[in-house]
Amino acid sequence: MTKGLTKLRSAAIAFGIVVGMGLGSNVEAAAILKYQTATAIDLSKGISGPNLISFTPAGAAGVDLASGSVNAGLGTFVVAPPAAGAATTYDNVKFAITVLPQDLNGTPLTALSTVITGVLNGVIDSPYHSTVTATFDQPIETLDLGSQQLTFSFPDGAKLLVPSQSNGGLTTVEALITSTNSEAPVPEPSTIALVLTTLGGLGLRQYVSGRRAKQA
Fold this sequence. Notes:
Elements: H1 2-27, E1 32-41, E2 47-48, E3 53-57, E4 61-64, E5 69-79, E6 88-104, E7 107-108, E8 114-126, E9 129-130, E10 133-136, E11 143-144, E12 148-153, E13 159-160, E14 170-181, H2 189-215
């Protein structure tokens, strides 16, 4: 009786180890999110002078969410040079960047989006001088993908928009995406096959041992 319990306990331990290995590998599997962005700058108020700032959205972008956090590009602010002797002032000029998920691991995502808002403040008064900053509003609404919940944050705070003669007037915008997997991990078919093979081997060993004991 004691030997039978010992063998049963050994089988259970082996089963747990194999399943645990399978679940671990499943959690670390890639979770590729493909997305694009769109943007709008509200020029109806807060701006003095001609607008010199545009935004190039991200297109055909992708990141891996498997680790739980990843840096993601949202697009690029572009600062144009002002006319000679002219200046443009931005005073809490609102902007919005819309993140549009396209698919997750090849599964299309439709009618999903989240909007990141903020304001522009500062002055551009020559091709060599800009004090404009882009400050992002917090908190940002969680984006629910079903199997993943995404939150966006900006650990570096405001972005400093460089003048046209510095890096071509390009300032990239990156967000930290933190993801939470809402689905329990499921063993892959290869893991299930390994579990069944292990249990089958243990059962066969116990059967052979029992037969030998009876014959003895």
